[in-house]
Amino acid sequence: MVTLMKGHDAADKTNREKVSPMLHVLSLVLLVLPMTTLAQEAGEVTVQVLYRGVVPPAQSVPVTRDAEFCGATAVTQTVTVHPHSRGLKDAVVIVEGVSLPSNTPTSPAPAVLSNSRCTFAPSVMVLQGWSSIEIGNQDPIMHNTHIRHGESRRTVLNVALVPGGRPISKKIAAAGLYHVQCDAHPFMRGYVIVRDHPFMAVSDEQGLAKIVGVPPGTHEISVWHERLGELRSKVTVPPSGTVRITIDFPAEALASHSSLDR
């Protein structure tokens, strides 16, 4: 009788040892499955931003420093509209209210901001929070890149960039609107918009902004432009599907102001 019980105990132990690894693998599959399913169901949003109003004329600003390289005057155009599609360039499109799961491993690539031909390239950019922005100088003259945050214009970075010097890297954490300016050449201006997720884009020459990996569901879309202000709309993203919407800035939007200073 005692020998029989020991035999059962040994068999049970062997069975438990066989089953335990299987349960471990199953638990890992169950943990990974929701994230995998979410990734498979993610959709794509394309927004075309239009402006049908009067395009303000470009402005010419006298250059008082390094005119031999930058030119006697600097021409700036804050509203760029495609002549045929009326697409608005450099509008920032954001899927609001969406955040990545806290356990999602993310390692956003650093964004590159260049001082090139006495302009910032790009002049408008988006950045996921806690990413790095890498600032370089491509010109044979000294530039000064000054980044300030929000309505308070609190300085986040203020650095001189010598010709041929190594790029400067700065990690940006807080969400919001950042103003970029070269103190040496005040006509050089730009913007960086930061959110804690990657679901945003800047419109191209046709006014198109494509955002991939958007979770399915109904979301609010915000569109911001430095001269035309901000508009909001709704979009419903189907699982594993694509959706395209058009957002029009009215003609009177030219007097609007930024509401991203928060």
Overview of the structural elements:
The protein is of the alpha+beta class and 262 residues long. It has two helices and 18 strands. Strands 7-13-12-9-10 form a five-stranded mixed beta sheet, with no helix packed on it. Strands 14-4-16-17 form a four-stranded antiparallel beta sheet, with no helix packed on it. The protein has a four-stranded mixed beta sheet with strand order 6-5-8-11, with no helix packed on it. The protein starts with a helix and ends in a 13-residue tail after the last strand.
Q: How many H/I helices?
A: 2
Q: What proportion strand? A: 35-45%
Mean pLDDT: 85
Main sheet attributes: strand count, strand direction, barrel closure: 5 strands, mixed
Q: What strand line-up does the widest sheet have?
A: 7-13-12-9-10
State Rg. 26 Å
Fraction of helical residues: 10-25%
Structural class: alpha+beta
Give the low-pLDDT segments. 1-8, 25-37, 258-262
CA(first)-CA(last) distance: 78 Å
Please count the beta strands (DSSP E, at least 2 residues each): 18
